[in-house]
Fold these 2 entries.
Entry 1:
Amino acid sequence: MNTLFAKTLRKLREEKGLTQKELGQRLFVTHSTIARWENATRLPDATMIPRIAKCLEVEAQELFQLAAQSEESPNVIIVDDSKIILTDGLLILEETMPKATVIGFTRPSEAIEYARANPVALAFLDIELGNTSGLDLCRTLLQINPHANVVFLTSYVGYSFDAWSTGACGFLLKPITKEAVLEQMRLLRYPISNWGGDQE
């Protein structure tokens, strides 16, 4: 079943401070129905999804897309113009997310080309990419896929304010560590299923 929808539903409900029982009361379903949706043993039908979206104040299309997503390995990219940092980052990400497809790019244009052909679930972007800004790359990736998660990588804390204005959901100082990546995985705006590692 689709665990991505289940995790997102639970996260949205908890952000609203609702229990399963309270959400069920608002949707006129039992709390056990909510539990089945959040355990990924059932999916709500097409007539219920707009009601859930309205109750949780999100776009219905977002929930429809999540419900339709398969359980294939998520695509994760890392973009950094330093080959040494890129290589080290790839090793950390592959160790942290053993079930994900992790690909690195030194050129933003190649990352954009890949993102147009493959749904990118998570992108780790250096902020300074030669003549290109990682902030601009973030905006482009989110135009291609509004449900992509973007985490910025930088050596400079001062960039963090500008980074948050792009729609990114995370920020890591280089060099990245497995522990820091795992913490970011728990904070993603759009949870990713089937990436391996510590998913609890």
Entry 2:
Amino acid sequence: MESTTNRSMEFRHLRYFVALAEELHYGRAAQRLAISQPPLSVAIQQLEASVGARLFDRDSKGVRLTPAGEAFRGSAQALLDRAEDACALAREVQAGEVGRLKLGFVGSTLFNGLAGWLQRFQASHPKVEVIVIELNSQDQIDALLGEELDLGLVHTDRLPPALASQPLYSEPFLACLPAGHTLATLEQIPLAALSDQPFILFSRKGSPDYHARIVEICRRHGFYPRLQHEGRHWLSVVSLVAQGLGVSIVPAAFRQAGIQGAVFRPLAETIEASAVFAAWRRDASEELRERFLAMSQG
């Protein structure tokens, strides 16, 4: 059974013991600890009672460690070092200097600076482990709600109440066409010219809001897209277009994907841009998130 004396030991007693063990002089140890000698003497007596052994001998020749004190000294110093390490780690975590950041992203961010943000963040936060996972917007929202992600980069700001967001950037939509398509010879593509074309769109299930926005863009210009295929990732959509299976309207970033057989043309009409938002749980710690988002601002 644990004794009551063992439960009364404090880290303060250990600090006092180590100071006296190093100075071997009550006056100097008390001065180093910024206390008077009587509290130091009382603390050492309390520690000896707690340990159940005499740690110091004191006589006219001075102060010296007993064999028990010598044996206790190394463990006492190790305990103090571990406590300081624990405190330092806690401070680093609170300051956002150490920890783990689980980041979700949509494919377009790969062509809009994500790699650079990650490199700058890792260079300035070497003790932070960053885990990146490509997911469509809806899967990221679900993962954020399930606390499986700390931060998401999504195509929508229409989020559940438990999530917050901020805009990161926007880019124009472009018409995406097979290289041999007759419309590919035009410098700009009127939206109405796509009305009778088989459409390939981002999955409604993967990003309901994003899918609905593209459909609404078409509706405002006089037609509903004739949906032929859906892809869960934009690169899949562009690849299907490149195979001649239809046309699409995609974020401009995918011009940089280098997929042979797909061409991109500006739309003749001015339409709303494709936007990317950072999303997170409102109740989540902000330090790592804010530090990462700072990298996205350049």
